[in-house]
Amino acid sequence: MHIEKAIDTILREEQDGFRKGRGCVDQIFSLRNILKQSLEESLRHLFSQLQECMQSICTQYFRSTGLSQREQVSSKSSVDNFLHGLNNCS
Length: 90
Fold this sequence. Notes:
This protein is mainly alpha-helical. It has three helices and no strands.
């Protein structure tokens, strides 16, 4: 019992594996969740950037082709639907 008190004063709060009732499994679970959320956020950002880039490229392309305004709107709508579908593929 005396050793536990001494260890508690030396170890940082994060050192759960060496304390009673505070195992490493909880820390591994928390770390895994943090990494998963970080990856998901990175992918959302990547798709957002891809969508903006594709919209810009398509807008420039449609302007250069001489399509009528109506044809441009129709084509842009198709591209937007495609990109929206990609963004929701999770």
